[in-house]
Structures
1.
Amino acid sequence: MLQNKHYLGDEFYPPIIDEETFEKAREEKRKRAEKLGRIREPKDEPKTDYPVKFKAKPLVQKYEDPYKQAEYAYSLIESEV
């Protein structure tokens, strides 16, 4: 309950807890997680480039019909092989 920001109140919900209590609960949860070794920092993943064997010309026309737009987009694809 103390992790859901809706309990602070918004346009649909009245506030149930104050912001100070909400922040204290968040800090306590983080402290406990650190103590137990449960904090995981995201690793920097190397960006991988996948080689492609085609090129696509830029879109020039727009169609209201999504099927016609897709057909047009696919017609712009050129194979490099």
2.
Amino acid sequence: MAVRKDVAFVHDVIRSEGIARRYMIVNGFDGALTVLALCVGFLINRQTDLDLVLSAGISASVALAVSGVNSAWLSESAERKRQLMELESAMLRDLKGSRHERIRVWLVLSIALSNGITPLLLGLLILMPIGLQRWGLIHFDEPMRASVLIGLSLLFFLGALTGRISGEQWLLSGLRALLVAGITAILIFALTF
């Protein structure tokens, strides 16, 4: 019962239910585009060493996850602490150990985790065909191309999701996300040749 009150308190008082979703989409887009760009770069340069591709992709995904957790923790913690101090000042009392403080910690933690987990999961999804091929679990004729297709699909999905949330045409938003991927591929091609 206390947990339900705390969740309701977050929605009603702090009104920040969309923050975690925004962080997930923003950092998810960063993670998917980064790993997709790695795959495209390796494909353009005809790199066939799947161990190298997998290592680079996992490393980038882990780095984005750690960076996402840390950056969201630092920024949200500072914002929420400032809000709590303003509330303490307005109420003329210390709120240490109060429900307000517990909600602040819960909210910061959930936002930080959502900001970090999303790029890791999306990066690993993109790398899945390469990993399955490398470990001999499934044979793909073109594991790199399969990874690129998964990456493009995830970017389209994230773009469509933002369109749906904003009330825009989801198809147009998805296509805009693919346009960003296309521009990224062109830049990679131009800079590596």
3.
Amino acid sequence: MELISYSYEFQASLEEFLEITLSYRGYKFDPTGLHSDIRNIENIYQSPGGNFWIMIENGAVIGSIALKILNKIDKIGEIKRYFFLPLYQGKGIGTLLMEHLLLNAKKTNYIY
């Protein structure tokens, strides 16, 4: 397993992952509506100073978490797209994702 910043080469795998994850929770993945941020990750998450991380195993996305910057001046951000595949529940993936986000938020002064 590897935790990396999103890059476009993982777009198809990310969308497959979200389709499975949201379906498991009883929702339909809507990449042109409610979940349209997924097709614009660089502009919505990465360029403003946040990030979108994905957990990869064997070339496939198995987890995700994002820090979306809401206000740079006041250092306000929010956690978004925090998911991992049901198969990985109870294996510490969620903890790894959250710890990684919090560490990065602290490095960029979004957590004091």
